[in-house]
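hey can u check if this looks right to u? its 356 residues, i copy pasted from the old doc so theres a chance i mangled smth
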Amino acid sequence: MQYCALDNIDAVRETIRYLQHSALKIRAIVSFIDPYCALAARLAEEFGVGCFSYEAMEIMQNKHKTRELLKDSPYNPRFTVITKENYEESERTVKRLLPAVIKYIDSNGSRDVYYCDRYSDYLKNSERIFNQYGDGTLILEEYLDGEQFIVEVLVIAGKVNIVAVVEQEIEYINEHFIITGYNLLTNYSRSYFEKLKKSTEEIVKLYGLKNGPCHLEMRLVKGNWKLVEINPRISGAGMNRFLDIGFGINLVQETLKLALGKEVNLERKHNKNTFAQHVILERSGILKKITGKREVLASPGVKYVYVKPRKGSYLSPPSSLGNRYAFVIATGGTEKEARWNAKSAAEKIVFHLISE
């Protein structure tokens, strides 16, 4: 293993060249982590092992380019671009969009994303982001009110393969939208999912993605699908384990097989009602100990439990998805049972904190 600074592209190139001149033969260059997915795909092309459509992936990683690309499609919310120079001069434009969501152009995991119900909220949150990042670019989008779903996709030779559709439970906590639950849909019998399939295919094709992974966050708004966000990778937060438990599909493995030019298999091995419940905290403090994991593993339907922080870590209520500190994946005979199994088990995890 060779370490290098991933933000230094020349250092990454030198490391790859070093590996090329060693006994190793490089067959693929892949990243599953923001913001390196498109960079890895571009480097793979540069070093002769390219497979993924890096130009499409670069657009997916840029919120501004994404909105511009989709602006003539029915899948875009109304939006406007905000800079430090114009944010106080656009009151009329802003008020036409309210209620809205404002986000930093490079934000991810719900970080630096704020809900604005009034113009004063917009000013406060704009200044908050500018104070943190300086002269950056913000996107103000109309708030989309409706159910939200993740659509996991792997595109192979231009064919858009929908691997899974996952319903999200979202809570508005600490001025942030935090996803706390994931429900794996085992069938798409409801009529609006045919429209979701068509919408997903059209959106992905607009990017020009011929080969590679992506996931879309879509909201159903008054019977129409709108794109909240798109990323050129599988979702994080245990999604690969989640899909493996529910469908028997290891999407990371199949993505790597695509990158290596091998045959990909996206067929479900089984079809289990599966739910993932994340654990968040209501107060801050230093972690003294964690109890309950053994009880969770012994709970009905539980297939996997993950606890992230270590003793001595500082924990706090969520301001991004990174502040979710554990999750439980459970199955059940029905969607309702899987949800209940995961939620009741997750309640047994206790973080013992030393107050600040």
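The domain at 78-142 is CATH 3.30.1490.20 (Dna Ligase; domain 1).
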